[in-house]
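pasting for the record
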Amino acid sequence: MRSLFQIIRVLLAGERRAYAQGMALSAIVLVMGVALLALSGWFITAAAAAGMIGLGTVFNVFAPSAMVRFLALGRTVARYGERLTTHEATLRALSNLRVRLLRGVLRSPYRQIERLRASVFLNRVTSDVDALDGLALRLVLPGAAGLLVIGISAIALALLVHPSIAAVILVGYGIGPTVVFIWGQSRADAPSRKAQAGMQALRSRMIDLIATREELIVFGQVPSARASVASASEFQSKNQSSVERIERATGLWIDLMGWAVVASALGIGASLVQAGEITAAQAAIGIFAALALSEAVAPVRRALSEIGRMRSAAKRVVPIIANPRADFGALLKPDAALLVAKKFAAANSTSNSPLFEPVSFSLDAGETLALTGRSGCGKSTALLQATGRGLTSIGVLQLGGIEVDEVDAELRAKLVAMVPQRHALVAGTIAENLMLAAPEATETQLWTALQAVHLDETIRQKGGLEARLGFRGAGLSGGEGRRLVLARALLRKPSLLLLDEPTEGLDATLAKLVLEGIRTALPDAAILMAAHRPEEIAFADRIVPLNPVVLIP
C-alpha cells in the first residue's frame, strides 16, 4: 500500500485546493442526502401523528416542505459542482503524472531505454495511468467523505434522536464496511492484478499481430499469433470473472449489513418510542438516516474491483517517477574543460571488468575528438558514459569539472546531445520529427538545420516540412533518416555533441560535407565521436584509440 500512498501524494501535490473543494462538496452531497431522507421521514411521521391527535390544522407544513425542496435542489447542484471540480483536477493531475512518468523513463540507463518496445511501453503507460485515474475519484475522495459524513451523522443522531441509534450507525457503517473492504481486497488483489496483466498482454499481442502481419503471413505464424492473443484474452477473462465474483460477494455483505443497520435502527427506535424516551417522528429520523447512509458506503464495492490494478500500477510507476539523484544546485565549473577523462574505462555491468584499456583526454569547446578501435571494443559505451546513462565506469569522467553522474539531469540534458547508431523517428511530418528536440524552433531554423546536413533539397522534393513519414520514419532511406536525426540534434544547440558513427550509410563525399556542416552549425560545441570510417577520423582534431582488454586465461 506504500506505493499507493506515494501516488496519492503525487496526485494531490498540485491540486490540493481543488481536491479539498471536491471532498467538501462530496460531503455536502452525502449530508444533504441523509438530511433529505431523514427530514422527509420525520415530516411524514410528524404530520401523520399530528393528524391522528387532531392537530393537523395547526401543524406547520410549509417550513419542512421548503427545506425538502432546498435539500433536493442543493444536493443536485453540489453533486454537479463536485463532479466538475474533481474530474477537472484529476485530468490535470494525470497529465502531470504522465509527464513525470515519461521524464522518469528518460532518466533510465540508455541500455534499458534501448530495450523498450514501443508497443509494450505505450500500452503499459496507458494502462497504468488509466488504472490510477480512479484512485482519487473512486477511492480516496469517496472514502474520506463517506467516513466524515458517517461520523457527522452519528453525532447528529446522538443529539437529535438517541445515542444507541448513533452507535448502531457508527458501527454498522463506519467499522463494518471497512472490515468487509479489507477482507474483500485481500481476496481480490491477486486476480485483479492478473486481470490487469492479462489485459496488457492482450493489447500488446494484438498490436504485434497487426503491426507484423506481413511477416507473420510470410512465415506462416498467423495461427500461432492468433492463438497467443486468444490465450491472453482467456487469461484476462478468467481472472476478471474472479474479481467480479468477489465484488458481488462483497456487495452482498455490504447490502446485508446496510439492511441490518436499518432493521436495528427500526427495532431500537420502536422500543425507545414505547419506553417514551423519544417520539415516533424522532425514531423516523434514525431509520431514514440509516437508509440514506447506504450511499456513503456504496463506493466500497467499486473500489474493491480496482484496488488490485491500482496497486500494481502504483508499484510500477513510483520507481520511475522517483528522482533521488536530482541536485538542482549542481553547477559546472567555468574554468574547467568541458569533458575530462582520467584513466577512464567503461566496465562490464556484471563483472566490473574494463571493456578497454583506461584512457585519459581533455575536450574543450570547439574541438573534435574521435574514439577509434575495432567493433565491440566499447566506443558506443564510452559515449553513453558521457551522457551519464551508460554502464559502470572505472576512473574519472567529468563534465565541466563535475562527475558526469553527479550533474543535475536537467542541466545535463541541456548541455549534452547524442546521436546513436540506431536513429529514432516517429510517424508524423518532417517538422514534427525535428521539433521533438526544439518545440519552439521556427521554420527558418528547421530549414537551416536540414541545410547543415545537406538534406534540405531532398526534403523539398518530398513535399517540404509537412511531408509525412510512416511508422519509424518510413519514407526515408537509412542515410536520409540518419541525417534527419543529425539535424534534430543540431537544433538542440548542445555544448557537447556525441556522435556514434554519424556518417554510416553515406558516400565519402557526402560524409565530408555533412561533418563540415555539423561543425559550421555548432562552431563552439565539443564533439566526441565514435569513428569508424576514414572520413570521420580525418575530420577529428585528435584521435584516442580504444584498445580492448586482453584477458589472460
